[in-house]
């Protein structure tokens, strides 16, 4: 039995999201060990504290794009499910990065990327939720078909 193309792309997106999360955690461990050294360095560029929140913000942005495409009816229900999943990943991971960031904005600890991830993740969840609610209303129920 072949799976539809949209379902396959959602599976690939979720698999990629999981891989990015694992790599992010692997990169965040050395960053946490050397946080005091990073505070003394120049914080321009992509520091190891910014890699994780930036990757999560990109995943949340992908979720928002999936949600917007599903809302405009250019993608199906599976894109809405992907939007909700990636949005929840962005909100939760962004909140964790924001809670564990030492220092404020501009210190190289990824607080800005974490805030962006939370906002984009919430947007993706809302857009995906709208599409899922609309698709539930549009489907006829068994009870309606019997009458």
From TrEMBL:
Q: Does the keyword Signal apply?
A: yes
Which positions carry the signal peptide feature in this UniProt record? 1-28
Q: Which keywords has UniProt assigned to this entry?
A: Membrane, Signal, Transmembrane, Transmembrane helix
Keyword hit for Transmembrane: yes
* Pfam families the UniProt entry points to: DUF6223 (PF19733)
Task: Tell me where the transmembrane regions lie.
Answer: 51-71, 78-99, 111-133
Q: Which domain of life is it from?
A: Bacteria
Query: What is the official name of this protein in its record?
Result: Uncharacterized protein
